[in-house]
Amino acid sequence: MQQLNTPYDWTHEQVVKFADNREAVDESLSLLGLILFRNELKDHTADAIAKLKAGDIRTVMITGDNAMCGCYIARQRGMASSSSREEYDLPAVKHLVEQGEDVELAVTGVAFDYLVAMGEIKGLLLNIRIFSRMTPDGKVECVKLHMETGAVTGMGGDGSNDCGALHFAHAGVALSDAEASVVSPFTSKSKTIQSVVDLCREGRCSVATSFASVKFVIVYGLIGSVMRAFQSYHTVIVSQWCWILSDGVSMLGCAYVMKLSKPLKELKAVRPTSSLIGPTTLVSMLGQQIVNVIFLCCSVHLLTSEVWYCPFSPVSIDVTKWWLMADIHLSMLF
């Protein structure tokens, strides 16, 4: 910042004409100081990114700033390694990626558009950590490409140029109350990236709770089927109070307790399963059913082994009064 000494009685036209002459403007200046602009991230951003990395969530930066600024911020916040800067042409980069080298790339918007046009972006996409000088349309294209890889893709942004990407992402988090909050499914009250961490925690908890509810209903039905088989074998039925205890107390109680499940305080690298017929879900239900059958067999064996146990004999029952063997709600029809 410098001071320019000009006459006070100059008109507007004289000032404009003088400003067009660069040599005249730079002559006889008095240096007052330098103004430094620093667009720093918030203090808790590094902690939020570290939590996302601990949860095995890959983080990338899509910014309108230049590549050097993006690289500096990414290194300071732990998004990228602090190794030395090296520049390669496209064939050399492709060779490093194909060799399985641990390469983290930073590309400009022009380079990104070129890679998309040449069909080279898909092979390098997961090695690019920083997308710089990106336009709003470029951000949308970047989000779509990540979604095409099969990964659940989230987007966090606070500006109007992020609206498109927030809308197309699987989970968009608006970090402001401006235009971004209109198109984004989620809006952060704290206006910080920590809201993305909270969304991941709550999302994983919702998935785990939903699958637990489904598995509980399935296992409950399987237990009832096995119990019916035991009843048919011993030609007996359980009383109505047994069903009241099972359906009214046990089932509702367990369902209510599952509803109270809370997310973990910290993200873990192990994710809950997202497949209803995947091995994790099937093995879980099968293992639980095996345990239930073992306990049921043991309890029936202990009961029938008692000296006071008197097995039911269907021979003594008048088959013409078969409804007496049915449930109460069936016998009431007659």
TrEMBL record:
It is a multi-pass membrane protein. The keyword NAD does not apply. Its main location: membrane. It is found in: Membrane. Keywords: ATP-binding, Magnesium, Metal-binding, Nucleotide-binding, Translocase. Gene3D superfamilies: HAD superfamily/HAD-like. InterPro entries: HAD-like_sf (IPR036412), HAD_sf (IPR023214), P-type_TPase_V (IPR006544), P_typ_ATPase (IPR001757). The keyword Membrane does not apply. GO terms for molecular function: ATP binding; ATP hydrolysis activity; ATPase-coupled monoatomic cation transmembrane transporter activity; metal ion binding; P-type transmembrane transporter activity. GO terms for cellular component: membrane. This is P-type ATPase (P-ATPase) Superfamily.
